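Exercise 7. Given the encoded structure of a 404-residue chain, write a plausible sequence.
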């Protein structure tokens, strides 16, 4: 074992490695080299090459893998505070829609924005995510709904990953809503926009996965099936907004396509649970949207747990149903609203979120994995989900580099 000059060593941390439950190691040390974790164990057992005078003393702070947000729509223009206020002053959904509100108002604003506008508007949200512990972030398209704007959103998302110390994965979500010019012609939209933009985004190296919104107000299982068949032909993994507002059998459809994840799942049926379990599809739990929409039907956490389906937790950061950037807040909501345990919530933003993105190189503190870690002003990992809003992040390590 040889340490390079670039090695970073943490000592005297209270580590939750997440390798076996919390995987707690009291008075832990972690050695990192070349952006990877090289060694983890008790500080008094640290191997000679990593015993260094410049080791970073964590003074007993809680050390966890850094957080992974596996479902976000963080790139968009404008916001929907105006319609939020209208509704709370008594306006109906129809009145809000007639006043130009809803998802299509974000589509209008996003189409009118340049790529630089989209980046500039997203960066404050990204900075909030970073400040609350996120170092890997999935970003979806889906507010362009035309070929050019979908590609612009994806380029903006990719660019963000070069401007901030955050690893961005991108997902094509042209099948998010039906734009006004295709009203009543969802099949034409799939043929003329969703599938062609998928080909273009893939050819230009802009996407890592393909998503769709399978719902009465969006796309039918048959339409999603056509899109996913194209994705599979291109070798791209799929995931699905499924069973958010009703049960259309989306999770089972996703499982048939060996989806990485099925997301939302408030209306998931027992058949959907079995299909996901058999396919190894991760359940992504999104309490921010449940909270904002004042949903009353909960995702079937008991059944998911009984079927040993890995559950991830994400922000769903978007301007309509989940204007939220903090993963620790999503963890708190997952516990309080859905009765997930604090351990499940933290697994949901670390190892299970990594699996939901198909990433096997992160999510726990173990040798060989990416050196992405968070140091928190906390003593036990349950504090991350317990507090309404995170305990302070003392420092983060992204790719083996310590940031203040
Ligand atoms: N489900 C949601 O909750 C968001 N998208 C989706 O498919 C809503 C997006 C928005 O309202 O802007
Ligand atoms: Fe979403």
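Solution.
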């Amino acid at each position: 074992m040889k340490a390079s000059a670039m090695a970073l060593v943490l000592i005297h941390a209270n580590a939750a490695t997440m390798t076996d439950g919390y995987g707690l190691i009291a008075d832990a040390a972690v050695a990192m080299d070349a952006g990877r974790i090289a060694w983890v164990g008790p500080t008094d057992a640290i191997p000679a090459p990593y015993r260094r005078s410049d080791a970073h003393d964590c003074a007993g702070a809680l050390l966890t893998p850094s957080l992974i947000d596996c479902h976000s729509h963080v790139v968009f223009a404008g916001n929907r505070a105006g319609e939020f206020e209208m509704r709370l002053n008594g306006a109906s959904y129809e009145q809000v829609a007639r006043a130009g509100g809803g998802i299509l108002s974000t589509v209008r604003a996003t189409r009118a924005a340049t790529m630089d506008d989209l980046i500039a508007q997203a960066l404050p949200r990204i900075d909030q995510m970073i400040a609350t512990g996120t170092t890997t972030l999935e970003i979806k398209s889906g507010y362009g709904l035309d070929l050019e704007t979908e590609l612009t959103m994806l380029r903006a998302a990719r660019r963000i990953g070069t401007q901030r110390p955050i690893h961005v994965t991108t997902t094509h979500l042209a099948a998010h809503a039906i734009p006004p010019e295709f009203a009543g012609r969802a099949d034409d939209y799939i043929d003329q926009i969703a599938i062609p933009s998928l080909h273009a985004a893939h050819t230009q190296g802009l996407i890592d996965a393909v998503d769709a919104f399978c719902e009465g107000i969006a796309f039918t299982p048959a339409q999603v099936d056509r899109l996913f068949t194209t994705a599979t032909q291109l070798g791209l993994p799929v995931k699905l907004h499924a069973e958010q507002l009703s049960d259309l059998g989306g999770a089972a459809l996703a499982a048939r396509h060996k989806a990485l994840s099925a997301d939302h799942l408030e209306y998931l049926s027992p058949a959907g649970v079995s299909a996901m379990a058999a396919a190894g599809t991760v359940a992504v739990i999104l309490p921010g949207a449940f909270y904002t929409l004042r949903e009353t039907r909960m995702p079937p956490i008991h059944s998911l747990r009984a079927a040993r389906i890995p559950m991830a937790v994400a922000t769903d950061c978007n301007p309509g149903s989940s204007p939220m950037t903090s993963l620790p807040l999503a963890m708190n909501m997952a516990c309080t609203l859905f009765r997930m345990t604090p351990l499940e919530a933290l697994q949901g933003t670390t190892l299970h979120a990594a699996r939901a993105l198909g990433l096997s190189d992160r999510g726990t503190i173990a040798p060989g994995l990416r050196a992405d870690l968070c140091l928190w002003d906390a003593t036990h990992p349950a504090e991350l989900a317990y507090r309404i809003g995170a305990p302070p992040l003392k420092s983060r390590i992204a790719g083996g580099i310590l940031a203040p």
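Remark. The chain has a mean pLDDT of 96. Students should compare their own answers with the one above.
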